[in-house]
Amino acid sequence: MTRIAFIGAGSTVFVQNLIGDALCQPALADAQIALMDIDPKRLAESAMVVGKMIAALGVAATVSTHTDQRQAIAGADFVIVAFQIGGYKPCTVTDFEVPKTYGLRQTIADTLGVGGIMRGLRTVPHLWALAEAMREMCPEALMLQYVNPMAINTWALGAKYPDIKQVGLCHSVQGTAAELARDLDIPVGDLRYTAAGINHMAFFLNFEAKTADGSYRDLYPALHDGYRAGRIPKPSGWNPRCPNKVRYEVMTHLGYFVTESSEHFAEYVPWFIKAGRSDLIETFGIPLDEYPMRCEEQIAKWERQAAALRDAATVAVKPSHEYAATIMNSMVTGTPSVIYGNIPNRGYIPQLPSGAAVEVPVLVDANGVQPTCVTDIPPQLVALMRTNVNVQELTVAALMTENREHIYHAAGLDPHTAAELDLRQIRSLVDDLIVAHGAWLPAWLQTRRAA
User: Fold this and answer.
1) DSSP string, 379-404
2) b/e per residue, 62-78, with b = 16+ CB within 10 A?
3) Which has more pLDDT, 393 or 309?
4) 398 pLDDT band (50/70/90 cuts)?
5) Nearest to 405 by CA among 415, 394, 391
6) Could you report the per-residue pLDDT of 169-200, keeping only the tens digit for each?
7) Strand 165-168 vs strand 32-36: parallel, antiparallel, or unpaired?
8) Which one of 220, 238, 274, 348 is separated from 313 by 20 to 30 angstroms, measured CA to CA?
C-alpha cells in the first residue's frame, strides 16, 4: 500500500487536484493519504474534500490529518510539498510594498527579483528541515516539490541534501503548450515538442504538429506569422489582465518561445518594466501587482467554494494537468512516462553550472526519475538563462554560507532590479526587506545587522 504525505495541505485546491488525480489511478486508489498543515481549519477543509472524493470514486484510500510533520511523513513513499512560508499576508504583501517605496514594481515576485530572493530565504530552511526529517522517517521517499522559488529551492536541496530524492514540479511546460495550441487552433494532442532550460525560463527547442499523412510540421513559422499579423496571442480566457504579448515579443528577437507566462517573464528580464515607460506597460499588457490581486481573488473564490463543498455529499473528481500522480503511478507500476521536472544539474544541461536547477524531460518508471541530457540549447538562450542562474546561485550561496553580503550580490545582479535601481538603493532595499520580514527569515539574518 502506497503512503502519500502532503505537506502544506492547507492549499485545499491543490490538494483536490493532486490527490484527485492520484485517486483516479488504480494502483494508488487504496493509498494512505497523510495531510499535514499548521492551520487546523484549512487542514480540516482539505481532509473533508479528500474524504468526499474518496466517497465519490468508491475507492479504498484512507485519509489522516497531522499538524506534526514527522508524523505525517513516517513511512511515506512520496512526500508532496506545497507550502508558502509567510503566506500572502504578511510576506507576499511585504515583498511588493517595500520595493514600491523605491520605485521598483513587480508582477508576481515569487521566483526571481527581490521578491523571489526573499521568498527563497524564507522557504529553503523549511525545505531543509523537511529533508532532514525524511532522512530519518522515510529515506527512500521521493519529494515532489511544488514550492516557489522552484529553482532556488531545488538547487539548495541538492546542495545540502544530495541523498534525498527530489523533483521540482511546475505546470508551465504543458500549460504553455496548451496555450499555443489554442492560439493556433490545433488539438493539443497533435503536438510534439522538446523544452529545456531552467524553471520559468525553459524554451521550446522544437514545436511541431502532426499532419494528415503522419509526418510533423514545424509550428514556429505559424507563431511568427500570427504574431506579426496580430492574430495571436488570442485573448486569455482565464485572466484578461494578462494578454501574453511579452513572450511573443521575446520569441521575435530570440527565435524561441519561453515556457512561463508573460506576467512572470516580464520581471525576469530588463526590457519591459521601466520607470517612465508606461508605453511598454500598455503595449505589452504587463499586469503590475498581479500576484496580490490574484491572491485576493483566490481567497474570495475559495470562501465561496468551501461553503459549497461543505454542503455537498460528494466532491466530483476532475483531472488536472499536474505531473504528481503520473510520477507516482509510474514508480509504483513500472509503467513508463515522460514529464518535465526540475533536477540538480549533473551534466543534464552541460551549458549551465553543475548543481544548478535545470528543467528537462524526465523518464519515470520503477527506477524512479531519470533526467535526460539536452546539449544543444542555442547560445542566446543559455546566455539569458545565466542572468537568472546568477541570482539563484548567489541566493543559495547566502543560505549555505550564512553570508548576508551574497543577498546584496544576488539582488544587484537581478536583471530587472539592476535596470531600475543603483547599488546603494539595492543594498538599502534589501536591508529594509530583511527588517520588514523579521522572524520569517532565518535566525542568522535576524541577528546579523547590515554593515
Assistant:
1) HHHHHHHHHHHHHHHHHHHHHHHT-T
2) ebebbeebbebbbebbb
3) 393
4) very high
5) 394
6) 999 999 999 999 999 999 999 999 999 999 99
7) unpaired
8) 238
Side-chain half-sphere CA neighbours of 319 within 13 A: 6
Rg (CA), the chain: 22
Q: Rounded to a whole number, what is the distance in angstroms from the first to the last CA of the chain?
A: 55
Does domain 3-88+108-170+316-371 sit in CATH 2.40.10.120?
A: no
Residue ranges covered by each domain of the chain: 3-88+108-170+316-371
The span from the CA of 5 to the CA of 19, in Å, is 10
Q: At 168, give phi and psi (nearest 5°).
A: -90, 130
What is the DSSP annotation of 166-217? EEE--SHHHHHHHHHHHHHT--GGGEEEEEEEETTEEEEEEEEEE-TTS-EE
Tell me, what DSSP letter sits at residue 4?
E
Q: Which residues contact 159 (CB under 8 A, 6 or more apart)?
A: 344, 355, 396, 400
pLDDT band at 238 (very low <50, low <70, confident <90, very high): low
Of these residues, 66, 171, 224, 409, which one is catalytic? Answer: 171
Please give the pLDDT value at position 313.
83
Q: Note the pLDDT of residue 240.
A: 80
Query: Among residues 356, 377, 357, which one has the least CA distance to residue 204?
Result: 377
Q: How large a percentage of the chain has pLDDT more than 70? A: 98
Question: Rounded mean pLDDT of 235-249?
Answer: 86
243 — pLDDT class (breaks 50, 70, 90): very high
Contact 197, 170 (CB under 8 A): no
Nearest to 50 by CA among 2, 10, 15, 4: 15
Alpha carbon distance 323, 169 (integer Å): 7
> Do 348 and 377 contact (CB within 8 A), yes or no?
no
244: left (phi over 0), alpha (psi -120 to 50) or beta: left
In this structure, is the dihedral angle defined by the CA atoms of residues 242, 230, 202 and 18, taken in order, positive or negative?
Answer: positive
- The Cα–Cα gap between 210 and 189 comes to 9
Per the annotation, the verdict on 224 as an active-site residue is no
pLDDT at position 314 is 83
pLDDT in tens, 354-368: 999 999 999 999 999
In whole angstroms, give the CA distance from residue 165 to residue 404.
Answer: 29
